C-alpha cells in the first residue's frame, strides 16, 4: 500500500488552504477553486520533488489542531512489552506507536483527554510482536490468534508466479482463471 499521497492528507490540505485564504477571495466558489489549485500545486510538487512547503499561515492552522510524534522501532517494541507487562494486553506495532505518542501528549498537556485506538490485530505483525515479547514467559502467541488462524502455519503454502514481462495482464489472467476454476 502506498500511503505517500493519502486521500485524508489531501483533504486536510484542502481545508487548510480554504481556511487560510483570508478575506481576499470574494466568494465561497472562488475560495474552493483557489484551495483546489493550491492543493494541486502541492501534490504536483510532492510527486516531482518528494516534498513541498506551505506558507506559515497554513502550518500554523495545522498546528492549532494537530501535533506529531516520531516513535523509533526500539520504542515501539518497548511499548508493546510495557503494555503487556502492565495490562496483559498485546498491542500491534501501529497501535503501540499511537499509544506512545498519546502518552507523550498526555505528559505534554495534562488534563487534556487523549484516546489511542488500536489499529490492527497483533497477528498481522507476528514478527514484531514476538520480538517484543520473546522474553515474556507467560506470552504464547497462539493464545492471541483468532480461531481461524490457529494451525494456518502448518497448511501447505500456495505460491503462484506471474512473469514480470506479463505485467498487470498476466496477474489479471491468473486471477480470472483461478476464479473460473473455483466457480466451476
Detail the poorly predicted runs: none
Radius of gyration, taken over Cα atoms and rounded to an integer in Å:
23 Å
The succession of helices and strands, N to C, reads: HHHHHHH
Structural class: mainly alpha
Number of helices: 7
Helix residue percentage:
40-55%
The strand count comes to 0
Strand content bin: under 5%
Mean pLDDT across every amino acid position: 90
Beginning-to-end CA distance, first to last residue: 32 Å
Shape from CA axes?
flat
Please give the largest β-sheet.
Answer: none
Nutshell version of this structure?
The protein has 184 residues and is mainly alpha-helical. It has 7 helices and no strands.
Describe this structure in words.
By secondary structure, the protein is mainly alpha-helical. The protein has helices spanning about 5-20, 30-50, 55-65, 75-85, 95-110, 125-135, 165-184. It contains 7 helices and no strands. It is flat and about 65 Å long. Helix 1 crosses helix 2.
Amino acid at each position: 500500500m502506498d500511503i505517500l499521497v493519502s486521500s485524508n492528507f489531501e483533504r486536510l490540505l484542502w481545508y487548510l488552504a480554504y481556511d487560510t485564504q483570508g478575506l481576499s477571495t470574494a466568494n465561497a466558489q472562488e475560495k474552493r477553486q483557489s484551495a483546489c489549485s493550491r492543493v494541486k500545486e502541492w501534490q504536483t510538487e510532492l510527486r516531482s520533488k518528494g516534498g513541498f512547503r506551505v506558507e506559515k499561515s497554513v502550518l500554523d492552522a495545522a498546528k492549532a489542531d494537530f501535533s506529531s510524534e516520531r516513535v523509533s522501532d526500539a520504542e515501539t517494541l518497548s511499548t508493546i512489552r510495557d503494555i503487556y507487562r502492565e495490562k496483559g494486553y498485546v498491542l500491534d506495532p501501529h497501535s503501540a506507536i499511537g499509544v506512545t505518542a498519546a502518552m507523550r501528549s498526555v505528559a505534554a498537556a495534562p488534563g487534556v483527554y487523549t484516546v489511542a485506538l488500536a489499529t490492527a490485530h497483533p497477528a498481522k505483525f507476528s514478527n514484531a510482536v514476538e520480538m517484543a515479547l520473546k522474553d515474556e514467559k507467560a506470552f504464547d502467541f497462539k493464545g492471541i490468534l483468532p480461531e481461524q488462524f490457529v494451525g494456518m502455519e502448518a497448511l501447505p503454502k500456495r505460491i503462484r508466479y506471474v512473469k514480470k514481462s506479463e505485467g498487470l495482464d498476466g496477474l489479471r489472467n491468473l486471477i480470472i482463471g483461478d476464479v473460473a476454476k473455483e466457480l466451476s
